[in-house]
Amino acid sequence: ATGGGVLYGCTAFGMTGFSVTETDHILSAYRNWYWKQVGIEKPYNISWIWNIPELYKHRHLDVETFSALKEGCSSLRKPKNDNRGAGCLPRVAPIALYHKCPDSNKHIQLAAETAALTHGSPLAWLSASLLVHLISRTIYAGCPKGDYLCGYLWEGKERLFQQFGNKQELQHLFETVDNAILLAANKKDDATNIARLNNGRRADECLGVAIYCTLRYPLDFGGAICAAANHSGSITASIVGQILGAKLGYSHIESKWTDSLERRDVILEIADDLTYGECDDSKWISKYHTCDFVM
Q1: Element at 34 (helix H, strand E)
Q2: Left, alpha or beta for 119 (phi > 0: left; psi -120 to 50: alpha)?
Q3: Taking Cα atoms as reference points, which of 25, 114, 22, 30 lies closest to residue 76?
Q4: Running along the chain, 295 residues long, what does each successive block of 10 average in pLDDT?
């Protein structure tokens, strides 16, 4: 939904020169998804992905996200809740593909705004911003601190301080990240170390566990995923998959992790559009303007 919202917005701007904010388009995509989950028919879609039958299946969604979509979403300036769970994290990864983070902090700001739609606590949306920066640098490299995970985190912490330095929650997030880095270097077992990160219950802790697992198993996609899933849960495992998948590349992930992935073709199509797409052909227009494309 996040990817569809971003691409619909960039297409609208490319065709008309006018667009509402990217966050507004992303919110519209989330509402599309919510309406379909609760059986409400609406007269429009903002992406071709809503033509896919699987999106009409009822999904398990964390309570905080579902409640926020039902009761009215928050924003950075006007939070309507204090949600600080990890449910906001998996949704922001498409921003890292589309915004390639050279010198601008646009990707960091958009990630924060997107996460804040459902999670009003700064701990949650700050964690989402750092995750997006980490994934974007992992994919596109070019980090002045060095092209390795700790270099990306170092730069990301500086970028977040530039953008949100007035938020006292930054210190807590940075302490969690630093603790995860230290724990990954010791010789204790995963269960003990991940327990020190509170098993990833909050967004910042979930990110900390994901960083720990990625550093602990830098070339072992399966080992990192299993450590996260066994000791923290499915959301943390998905974050590990995003970070380590960006590092290793799709072709270097064992087929047992990808062959049974539901609608893998759609996921790859949107990922390619976010990374390489140009909104100047008829197929693109049918995807993100008329929204009548069917795969």
Answers
A1: helix 22-37
A2: beta
A3: 114
A4: 88 71 89 82 75 79 86 89 94 92 88 96 98 95 92 96 94 97 97 94 96 97 97 95 96 94 93 83 86 84
